[in-house]
Amino acid sequence: MTEDSTPAVSIDNITKVFPLPLRKGKGLLAVDKVSIQMTPGEIYGLIGPNGSGKSTTMKILLGLVTPTEGHSRIFGKDSRKVESKHEVGFLPENPYFYKHLTGAETLHFYGKLCGLKRKQIRERTEELLDLVELQNARDRRLGGYSKGMLQRIGLAQALIHRPKLLVLDEPTAGVDPVGSRQIRDLILRLSEKGITVFLCSHLLEQVQEICHRVGIIFRGKLVREGTLAELISVEDQTEIILRDASPELLEKIQTLVDSENTETVRVGKPRTTLERLFLDHAASDRQNKE
Amino acid sequence: MDAQTLPNNPHRKFSPGRIWALATSTLTQLVRMKVFYFLLIFIALLFVAGFLFISLSFEQELKLLKDIAFGAMSLFSIIFAIVGTAILIPRDVEDRTLYTILSKPVPRLEYLIGKLFGVLLLVAISLIAMDLIFSAILYLRQNVILTEQIALLESEGNATPENIADVTNLVNAQGVNWDLQAAVFSIFLKAAVLASFSMLLSTFATSTMFTIVVGFAIFFIGHGQSLARDYFLGGIEVEAIQKLITVTLVVLFPDLQLFNLVDGVVSGESVPVSLLLKITGIATLYLVIYNLAAYLVFSEKEL
Ligand SMILES: Nc1ncnc2c1ncn2[C@@H]1O[C@H](COP(=O)(O)OP(=O)(O)O)[C@@H](O)[C@H]1O
Ligand SMILES: [Mg+2]
Known about the structure:
- The structure holds two protein chains of two kinds.
- Chain A has a single domain (3-233, 271-289), classed as Rossmann fold (3-Layer(aba) Sandwich), CATH 3.40.50.
- Helices cover 36% and strands 22% of the residues of chain A.
- Chain A contains nine helices and ten strands.
- Chain B has eleven helices and no strands.
- Chain B has one domain (14-299).
- By secondary structure, chain B is mainly α.
- The interface between A and B is large, with 49 and 37 residues.
- The complex binds adenosine-5'-diphosphate and magnesium ion (MG).
- Residues 18, 28, 30, 48, 50-56 of chain A line the site of adenosine-5'-diphosphate.
C-alpha cells in the first residue's frame, strides 16, 4: 500500500458497550457499529447532541477506550499500539493541564513525552507559541489562563510532535465568539498545511463553516455522512433563490408552478442548515418511537 | 510548519527519558503545592526537643532528640508517600490531563512508574533535607554537651585524659554516625513500599479518601503483620496451605516491621551492611509486585 492510499483514519464497525455497575448483563450502548474513513488532508466533523457518542468514538480512535467490537487505525497503524500516537495529536473536551506549569513548561513536558530532543522542543515551543498567539503568556502558569487560552495551549500541545492527524473534541465549547473564531482560523491554517483534522461538536454552525465532510451521530449511530453539499441538498426538491423579486413576479411563478404537476413545498427565505437536518432527524426518530 | 513527523526520533518501547519527564513534572507539581513548608514544623520540633529538656541526663536528652526526629521523619515521609500518590492519579483522570498524556506515545506502565518516581523523589528530597537539619542540630547539641561534661570533670578535678576520652566516647556514641543514616534510609524504603501500595489502590479506588484511609490502615497492619501471622498460624509447623496463607498475607500486607531499623539505631545498635542489602531487596520486590499489579488493573481501565 502506498502512503497516499492509506486512510488517515479508518474506524471500522466500532461498537462500545459500557458496563453498568449494579446491573449485570446490561450495558450502555454508547457507540453502535460506527465506521468512518478519512482521507489525508480533509477536515471531518462529527456532529451530534451531548451523549451521542462523539467523545467515546474519539477515545477509541486514540486507544484510550477499548471498543467492545471493531477496530480502528491511524495511518494504517492499530490505535491500540503506542506507536500509532506518533502520528496523532489530541485535544480532549474541556481539558485541564497541569495548573502549576507555565505555557512554555507545558509544551516542554509534552515534547519530552513525545521523545523530542531538547533543541527540537525549544524550536517547536517558539513556533507553536507564535502560532497560537500565546507568546506573551508563555511564562504565566496555566492556572491563570482563560478558557480560550487553555484551548489554544491545548492545540499547541497536540501539535508539538508535528502529527499528521489532529483530533479535537469540542475545540470551541465554552469559548467566547472571538476566541472561537481564532480557533477556527487556526484549524483552517493547519489544514492548508496538509494536516488531517477530525473534530466534533454539538454546535452545528461551526462545523458547517469549516468541515469538508460531516458525519451525524445520534444515540451512538452514524445516521448520515457526506460532504456538506450532499447533506444539505434535498434531492427531489429545487430551490430558486431570487434577490429583490417583486410580488407580481412571485405570483406569476406560483401560477406557473400550479399549472404544472408540481407541488410547492415552501416559499420563503432559504434557511436549510445542518441544524435543521439534525432537528428533522431527531423529530422523525421520536415519531418512530411513539 | 509542515505535516511531517520529526526525523531521528524512532519510537522506543521503553524510555527512561519519558519516565523522567513524568517524574519531574510530578515533583514540580507537589513542590508548587508548597509542601516543603513542613520543614519549618520539623525544625521547630527539633529545637523544642534539642534545647528545652535540659534537665534530663545527656544520654536521655540525645535519645529523645533522635526519637522525635525519627518519629517526625517517619510521619512526614509516610504522609507524603500515601497522600501524594493517592491524590495524583485521580486528579489526572478528573482533569482529563491523563488523556493528553496517554494520547502521546507513552505506555501506561511508564505513566505509573513516572508518577511513583515523582512521589519517591519528593520523599527522598524531604528525608535528605530533614536528615541534614537533624544531623546539624544533633551535632551542635553533641558538642555543647561534650564541652559541658568536660567542664564538669574539670570543676570536679577529675579531668584526666582517660576520663575525658571516656566521656567523649559516651557522648559520641549517642551522636551523629552512619547508623543514623541507615535508619533514615530504612524510613525511605518503608515509605516507598507504602507509596507503591497506595498507587495500586488508587488504580481501582473510586475515591481519594478511600485510598488514603486504606493506605494508613495498611501502614498500621503492616507493623503488626508478623504478630497477626503468628496469631493466625498459632506457631504450628507450616504446611503447604499455611505457607500459601502466609505468602498471601505477606503480599497483601507488607511486613513493615522488617524496615524498622530506627528503634535499634536510636538505642545505639549498629546496622550491618547485609541487613541493609536485605531490606533494600525486599522493598524492591514489593515495589515491583505492586507496580505490576497496578499496571494490570490500569491497563484494562476505561478512562
Ligand atoms: N466511562 C464511561 N462509563 C460509562 N458510560 C460512559 C462512559 N463514557 C461515556 N459514557 C456514556 O456513553 C454515552 C456517550 O458519551 P460521549 O461519548 O461522552 O458523548 P458525547 O461526547 O457525544 O457527548 C453517554 O451516555 C455517556 O454517559
Ligand atoms: Mg463529548
